[in-house]
Amino acid sequence: MVRIYQRGKKGTYWIDYVFDGQRRREPLGVTNKPVAEKRLVEAREALARGERPGAGRTVELGELLDRYLEWCADVCLNTDKTLYDKKRYIRRYIKFWGTGRKVVTLKRADVEAYMGRRRKESGSVILPNRELQTLRHFFNFAKSRDIIIKNPCGGVKRFPGEELYRKPIRKLDLRDVQTWLAYLTEYDEVLYDLSILAIYSGQRPGDILAIKGADIQDGIWYVRQRKKHGKVNEAPLLGPAAQVVERRKVLYGKGYLFPGRKPVTHLTTYRRPFKTAKQDLGLEFDFKDFRHLYANILAAIGTPSPEIKNLMGHSRITTTERYLGGAGALGLSKKAAVGKLVAFLEGPHDKE
Predict the structure, then answer these.
(1) Rounded CA gap, 95 and 223, in Å?
(2) Which residues contact 347 (CB under 8 A, 6 or more apart)?
């Protein structure tokens, strides 16, 4: 015998069944009758196969974390730093709720309680909002595996006022960029090549470090964006960027153009030489500022915001507009826009 029943007038539905000679009563975690009836049909099918109904929904938070991180590394192509951040964020959730807590028992009120506590602890809204985004992804993974029916983060809003805490976008001076590249020609060839690709392609540092010779065809770099779960973006390579790629393809063929110490791996960071070079020149900037420079130059030469968004691999136009002081109105193709950028960078530049 298998049946469902509701506790209270508007309470949660429970399922009552017999498995392995024992009678069991378990919460379904839903208050909607049609959904509960669907779960009843699934339970009958599971019993007919000799399986316990809802076995996948008894997963604990600790177990789900291990499965989630393994999936992120294999399928989403997350970098080591991204995996570290996700593990750090989710362990905070688990510490708050308890490692042995069943995932199916978490509700929207639990997420809101956690967010309120993190807002007080951090003193900012940026970190709690970032953790909420990771938490949504975490529970969507559980939902896709039929561990839960509804994401408990649904309806939980981000804290407003994030722009008040965000650091302003730093704009590099072109004379400083030329000084930087001139110094690197004698200081470090790898850092020079990385800088050239960042300036002339506008891609993320993690994607540049993971570039392969096989990803480049007919002057187009088909970027597998690690931050976007392997989504492919097209980035034309012209001028110095094309020269760097061709030189490294001669050395490394179709493999990683910036190989790591271990076989079949790539560099994951190059911070120490970067920091030393900055100190020698007395400059203060981050490597990702080359990406911001790329966007602003494209805007200055008249590339519309939607095309800049596509070149940089952004998901939302609002992200692109954060980098820009205003884009022009010329309708340029990707290759034409990058061609103008190369001509602009190769020309003379004087400080105003």
Answers:
(1) 37
(2) none
CA distance 300 to 296: 6
Q: Rounded to an integer, what distance in angstroms lies between the CA atom of residue 352 and that of residue 274?
A: 28
Closest to 313 in 3D by CA, of 217, 197, 233, 257: 233
Query: Residue 158 and residue 126: Cα distance in Å, rounded?
Result: 9
Query: CB neighbours (10 Å) of residue 329?
Result: 7
- Answer yes or no: are the C-beta atoms of 307 and 339 closer than 8 Å: no
Kind of pairing between the strands at 22-27 and 231-236: unpaired
Q: Are 242 and 199 in contact (CB under 8 A)?
A: no
User: What DSSP string runs through 94-158?
Assistant: HHHH-TT-BGGG--HHHHHHHHHHHHHHHSSSHHHHHHHHHHHHHHHHHHHTTS-SS-TTTTPPP
For 136-157, the pLDDT digits (tens) are 989 988 888 777 778 899 889 8
Q: Measured between alpha carbons, how far is 17 from 159 in angstroms, rounded to an integer?
A: 43
Residue in the block written with tokens 């978490």:
106
In whole angstroms, how far apart are CA 237 and each of 213, 248, 296, 302, 346? 13, 14, 18, 19, 15
Contacts of 5 (CB under 8 A, 6+ apart): 13, 14, 16
User: How many residues in the chain?
Assistant: 352
CA distances from 151 to 158, 213, 265 (A): 15, 40, 36
CB count in 10 Å sphere of residue 102 = 17
CB neighbours of residue 185 within 10 Å: 9
Contact 31, 11 (CB under 8 A): yes
Instruction: Identify which of 247, 248, 256, 277 has the alpha carbon closest to the alpha carbon of residue 211.
Output: 256
pLDDT tens figures, 295-327? 888 887 788 888 888 888 888 888 888 777 533
| Entry pTM | 0.61
Instruction: Name residue 217's amino acid.
Output: Q
